[in-house]
């Protein structure tokens, strides 16, 4: 898995909250969808930029209960295998939408606290 930066995206978090009721679920699902199909919770948390696994424990449990991933224990580590389902393609489409929302957000005022623009005046 490559480094994933969209987990902290305001647009992705907002859309995830609306669709899934949890701000990190969409990023977790998108990362699983983009993986080779087998993810380790510790590695996944690290790739998403979370300090610990606590942010992904409930979503992984829910995805397991929904039959979207299967927990596999082996070699002293826990892994989750992505099961075939159309939700993974949908998660990637939602990710695109959330990232597009970020691009459409209003640009912040470019003035510094002294009232000057960030560009040399």
From TrEMBL:
The keyword Zinc does not apply. Transmembrane segments: none annotated. Pfam families: MarR_2. Coiled coil: none annotated. The keyword Ribonucleoprotein does not apply. Keywords: Plasmid. InterPro entries: ArsR-like_HTH (IPR011991), HTH_MarR-typ (IPR000835), WH-like_DNA-bd_sf (IPR036388), WH_DNA-bd_sf (IPR036390). GO terms for molecular function: DNA-binding transcription factor activity. CDD domains: HTH_ARSR (cd00090). It comes from the Bacteria. Residues 27-73 form the HTH marR-type domain. This is Putative transcriptional regulator. It comes from Mycolicibacterium chubuense (strain NBB4).
């Amino acid at each position: 898995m490559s480094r994933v930066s969209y987990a902290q995206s305001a647009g992705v978090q907002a859309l995830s909250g609306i669709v899934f009721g949890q701000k990190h679920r969409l990023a977790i699902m998108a990362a699983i969808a983009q993986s080779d199909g087998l993810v380790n919770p510790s590695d996944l948390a690290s790739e998403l930029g979370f300090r610990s696994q606590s942010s992904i424990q409930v979503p992984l449990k829910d995805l397991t209960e929904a039959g979207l991933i299967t927990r596999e224990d082996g070699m002293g580590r826990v892994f989750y295998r992505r099961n075939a389902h159309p939700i993974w393609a949908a998660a990637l489409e939602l990710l695109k939408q959330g990232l597009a929302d970020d691009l459409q957000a209003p640009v912040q005022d470019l003035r510094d606290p002294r009232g000057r623009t960030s560009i040399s005046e």
